[in-house]
């Protein structure tokens, strides 16, 4: 009898473990794609999403590695009498399955958005209480990526809420990248490694250099919107939590949304690449200037982000206005970003002993924006960096 009981207990425990897991082998390098929120907010429609998917192909972004087309908030309007989530019939008249099929037909992947609370941030129906039902709908529509937000959820336990949706997705059976978006409020880097594939580390990014704005959220003045340098400052110390299948997410890109200069967008992109951040473009892909397309599709810079070792870069020197960031790559070489926040040009050195090489090593330095080798250097390299810009190099002994 005892034996039978232990077998029953063990098989119950095994079944729980078998169903309580995220999809493995997804997002082994940081996810790359596009999301509607930064540029379009709630103004989403199937027409625009299809055009954006087409533009991802025609602009060369697909060939450069971008895959996911993610519809953020406001695609949903209610629930039917069986509780199924209902997309906006005017903006998405063909339905989500047709949209997903179209995105797949041109070789891309389909992403969608929901929220762990009763409402989304745009006050559309959230998934609370409908997790398994929504996960089944997404799987039926061919969804490949779910961004799961945290509005109207502040009375919930974050780990339990995100585990619940993780398990629902797993049960629905379609491999879906799970993007946790609780803004770093309960330190997801500590608990989310086996829950999601990426997790936001801060409040929302804004298309500005160092702004920060307070908003009133549920009657409280709280959530800050942050310029990319402010977000960057909050990434130090999180490096060790990132790796293949589990990434820190400093929020989507603002490259091309027009408030910043080309050098500033180059800096934003370079730093997101060295951070091993998900590269989710947030601009209008249909009318990019060649300079913006050139930033988003620079394959040498993207290769640093997508390096299969999956190490997040870290800041090794901070001299106030100038900073040195380094990321170790699979082949043992280093990618380095020399970042100048100051108002005038700066000469910024990087010393081999800061990046884990002995002084006597001779290494080839390659400039990833100029796309040319700068020669062989021993012990250090010094870049001349214009104001609000970067020099990004690889250093190969
Ligand atoms: C939150 C998220 C944003 C976006 C909006 C949508 O603010 O952090 O990225 O998804 O909600 O309403």
Can you give a write-up of this model?
The chain is of the alpha/beta class. The protein has helices at residues 2-19, 37-40, 46-58, 61-64, 96-105, 131-141, 158-172, 188-191, 228-233, 262-274, 290-296, 299-305, and strands at residues 32-35, 68-70, 76-79, 85-87, 109-115, 145-149, 177-180, 198-200, 212-217, 220-226, 247-249, 279-281, 314-318, 322-328, 334-340, 346-351, 362-367, 372-378, 380-385, 389-396. Mean pLDDT is 95; it is low at 14-18. Alpha-D-galactopyranose is lined by residues 37, 72-73, 120-122, 149, 181, 183, 204.
Residue-averaged pLDDT: 95
Our count of helices gives 12
Note the gap between the termini: 66 Å
Architecture per CATH nomenclature, i.e. the level-2 architecture of the largest domain = Alpha-Beta Barrel
Number of strands: 20
Please state the overall shape, judged from the principal axes of the Cα atoms.
globular
CATH superfamily of the largest domain: Aldolase class I
> What hetero molecules are in the model?
alpha-D-galactopyranose
Name the CATH class of the largest domain. Answer: Alpha Beta
Question: Secondary structure elements and their pairing?
Answer:
Elements: H1 2-19, E1 32-35, H2 37-40, H3 46-58, H4 61-64, E2 68-70, E3 76-79, E4 85-87, H5 96-105, E5 109-115, H6 131-141, E6 145-149, H7 158-172, E7 177-180, H8 188-191, E8 198-200, E9 212-217, E10 220-226, H9 228-233, E11 247-249, H10 262-274, E12 279-281, H11 290-296, H12 299-305, E13 314-318, E14 322-328, E15 334-340, E16 346-351, E17 362-367, E18 372-378, E19 380-385, E20 389-396
Parallel strand pairs: 1-2, 1-12, 2-5, 5-6, 6-7, 7-8, 8-11
Antiparallel strand pairs: 3-4, 9-10, 13-14, 14-15, 15-20, 16-19, 17-18, 17-20
Helix pairs in contact: 6-7, 10-11, 10-12
Bound molecules: alpha-D-galactopyranose.
Alpha-D-galactopyranose is lined by residues 37, 72-73, 120-122, 149, 181, 183, 204.
């Amino acid at each position: 009898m005892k034996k039978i009981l232990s077998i029953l207990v063990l098989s119950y425990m095994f079944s729980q473990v078998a169903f309580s897991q995220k999809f493995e082998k997804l997002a082994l390098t940081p996810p790359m794609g596009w999301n509607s929120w930064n540029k379009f907010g709630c103004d989403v429609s199937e027409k625009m999403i299809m055009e954006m998917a087409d533009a991802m192909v025609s602009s060369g972004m697909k060939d450069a590695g971008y895959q996911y087309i993610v519809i953020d908030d406001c695609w949903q309007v209610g629930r039917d009498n069986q509780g199924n989530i209902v997309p906006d019939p005017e903006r998405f008249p063909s339905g989500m399955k047709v949209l997903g099929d179209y995105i797949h037909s041109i070789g891309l992947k389909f992403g969608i958005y929901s929220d762990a609370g009763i409402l989304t941030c745009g006050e559309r129906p959230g998934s609370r209480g409908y997790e398994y039902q929504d996960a089944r709908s997404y799987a039926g529509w061919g969804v490949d990526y779910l961004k799961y937000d945290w509005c109207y959820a502040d009375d919930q336990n974050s780990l339990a809420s995100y585990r619940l949706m993780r398990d629902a997705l797993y049960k629905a059976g379609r491999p879906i990248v799970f993007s946790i978006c609780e803004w770093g409020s309960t330190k997801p880097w500590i608990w989310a490694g086996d829950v999601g594939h990426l997790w936001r580390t801060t409040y929302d990014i804004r298309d500005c250099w160092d702004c920060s704005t307070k908003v009133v959220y549920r009657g409280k003045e709280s959530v800050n919107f942050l310029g990319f340098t402010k977000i960057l400052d909050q990434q130090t110390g999180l490096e060790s939590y990132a790796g293949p299948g589990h990434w820190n997410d400093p929020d989507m890109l603002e490259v091309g949304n027009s408030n910043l200069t080309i050098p500033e967008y180059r800096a934003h992109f370079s730093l997101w690449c060295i951070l091993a951040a998900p590269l989710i473009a947030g601009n209008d892909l249909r009318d990019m200037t060649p300079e913006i397309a050139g930033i988003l599709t620079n394959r040498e810079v993207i290769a640093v982000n997508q390096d299969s070792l999956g190490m997040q870069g870290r800041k090794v020197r901070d001299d106030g206005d100038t900073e040195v960031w380094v990321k170790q790559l699979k082949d043992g070489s280093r990618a380095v970003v020399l970042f100048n926040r100051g108002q005038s040009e700066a000469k910024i050195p990087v010393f081999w002993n800061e990046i884990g090489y002995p002084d006597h090593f001779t290494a080839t330095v390659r400039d990833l924006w100029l796309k040319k080798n700068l020669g062989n250097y021993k012990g250090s390299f010094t870049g001349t960096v214009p104001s609000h810009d970067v020099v990004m190099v690889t250093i190969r002994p």
